[in-house]
Design goal:
The chain is an alpha/beta fold and 363 residues long. The protein has twelve helices and twelve strands. It has a seven-stranded mixed β-sheet, sandwiched between helices. Helix 4 links the parallel strand 3 and strand 4. The longest helix is centred in the first third of the chain and has 21 residues. The structure holds pyridoxal-5'-phosphate (PLP). Pyridoxal-5'-phosphate binds next to helix 3. The site of pyridoxal-5'-phosphate has 12 residues, from helix 3.
């Protein structure tokens, strides 16, 4: 049987052994953290221990961690629950290459343009902020291209105008240093934890109202029994340090080889995460590339993983001004466990595909 090589770690990455063990152990514990009996107290101790661990990872005190069902919920909570002075929610300014979790968080998002490398247009942000304070949602790094935003500049502009900053760190956490922000969204399944759990880091608990109220859990910020096994797995995953520099070296070597065969690397000129590459093959639909590579045993994606399983032209690449090329790129994303042999095999398969289908090969 043909071996299967997984190069879609930005979609989700395997649950680490430590996270799996912590999750299974927590499943064996019977008790609601809100109960006062012994079982409840044990569950609460596990929950608060995990909160301490995630807080250390995020560089904050434990009371600033609100556990959620993942990155999407963390973003929805901040987007809808953030408050400046007064009871109404602030305007929400977002970059055009944000994840759909941000773009769809509200009906009234104000879209800001990005440049050809996918970095937010700082002049447009400044102009939008001059119209009044706002919540600005910006991704630390993009999930399709790995492009890192000019975070220090964005944070400074938001501060100057007295606004709030929501940092979507779902792809970036653990892979790069993050700036201070009012809210930071994290997701466990992108960093070796289980799916369906994440956190919103909240700098000032007074600046957030609950969207899901219920029983007042998470210090009133998120009602409902917390996903204790998932949270235990999340904490175990963030306790593991990874060395990302060899991953960047492998990614760059791969890009160099593919460029010689006609590939275009989107966002190449901007600083990027170590593990994500957006690889265009002119004239070949992304869906065709993904299917051909899948037949050869390689799991990659066409832009973001979409719930419908359909491949649409990437809104990220379209916002970067790529036109038809927005539908002709695949995302390859590596993990620290990706080997040179896997990269070699992928490069050979991609180059063979390009020679058969690409404009260069057809010429
Ligand atoms: N933000 C970014 C940049 C992402 O890549 C994702 C997931 O792909 C999310 C948010 C949503 O996170 P989750 O899958 O935990 O809801």
């Amino acid at each position: 049987m043909k071996s299967r090589i997984y190069l879609d770690h930005a979609a989700t990455t395997p649950v680490s052994d430590a996270a799996r063990a912590a999750l299974v152990e927590a499943l064996g514990l019977t008790g609601n953290p809100s109960s006062v009996h012994g079982g409840g107290r044990a569950a609460n101790a596990l929950l608060e221990g995990a909160r301490d661990t995630v807080a250390r990872f995020a560089g904050v005190a434990p009371e600033h961690v609100v556990f959620t069902s993942g990155g999407t919920e963390a973003i929805a909570l901040a987007s809808n629950g953030a408050r400046l002075a007064g009871p109404t929610r602030p305007r929400l300014l977002v970059g055009a290459t944000e994840h759909s979790a941000v773009l769809q968080a509200r009906d009234d998002v104000v879209l800001l343009p990005v440049d050809g490398d996918g970095q937010i247009d700082l002049a447009a942000l400044r102009a939008a902020l001059s119209e009044g304070t706002a919540l600005v949602a910006v991704q630390a790094a993009n999930n399709e291209t790995g492009v890192i935003q000019p975070l220090a500049e964005v944070a400074a502009l938001v501060r100057e105008t007295g606004g709030l900053l929501l940092l979507d760190a779902v792809q970036a956490a653990g892979k790069m240093a993050l700036p201070d922000a009012d809210f930071v969204a994290l997701s466990a399944h992108k960093l070796g934890g289980p799916p369906g759990v994440g956190a919103l880091i909240v700098r000032d608990p007074e600046s957030l109202i609950a969207i899901q109220r219920g029983g007042g859990q998470e210090r009133g910020h998120r009602g409902g029994m917390p996903n204790l096994p998932g949270i235990a797995g999340f904490a175990a995953a963030v306790s593991e340090a990874h060395d990302w520099s060899p991953v960047a070296t492998r990614r760059i070597a791969l890009e160099t080889r593919l460029k010689a065969g006609g590939a275009i690397i989107h966002g190449e000129a901007a600083p990027r995460l170590p593990n994500i590459s957006s690889i265009g093959l002119p004239g070949v639909a992304a869906s065709t590339q993904v299917m051909m590579l899948d037949l050869e045993g390689f799991m990659v994606s066409a832009g973001a993983a979409c719930s419908s399983g359909k491949v649409k032209a990437s809104h990220v690449l379209a916002a970067m001004g790529l036109g038809a090329a927005a539908g002709e790129a695949i995302r390859v994303s590596l993990s620290p466990a990706t080997t040179d042999a896997e990269i070699d095999a992928f490069a050979a398969a991609w180059l063979a595909m390009a020679a058969r289908l690409g404009r260069k090969g057809a010429a």
